[in-house]
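Take one record.
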Amino acid sequence: FFNDTATTEIYTLSLHDALPISRCAPTSGDQRPTDGHSPGSIDTQAADNSPMPKPGHPATRGFSLIELMLVVVIAGILAAVAYPSYTSHVQRGRRADAMAVLTAIVQAQERYRANNSTYAATASALGVDVSKLTQIYSLTLAGVGNPPSLTSGYVATAAVLESGVQRNDSTCATIGVQLQGGVLQYVATNSSNADTRAACWGR
């Protein structure tokens, strides 16, 4: 029923699809291809090794205008709450520096009075370093009594400079120490000249 030129289709299953492979029955005059494949055949190995397409990357999503506005509002609220607390903390730190200098003056004055008939009129005479206060407070030393005298006591005062970074410290505009009649007192006033020693010195 089949002659030499009859063609038989053989179906072979590959990894992806069923590929029809046509093979011709060999005849005495046919020449086989030198590459080992029969005419009309399909290279299934090349088809199997073809690269698969890669899925595309999802598009990057940005911020909407509403989201940005919410971030700005939240940042403003946090700043409004945190900034006053921060400035108050900084003011207390500078105030503590002034109190430390005043305390050093009290100690230095006692040593000075032990060797002199009066108390010292300047911090330099006491050898006290006041460099931390030069840009923040104005430091003064004065006598007590009427007329003021350094024989029986003194007043050391640190007043905030109006052009300094501590000028907004209205609660403790001036802080100081006063020695009179052998009694040492810690003094302080606000920007209205009211007594604020309890708030400033805490004693």
Notes: The two ends are 125 Å apart (CA to CA).
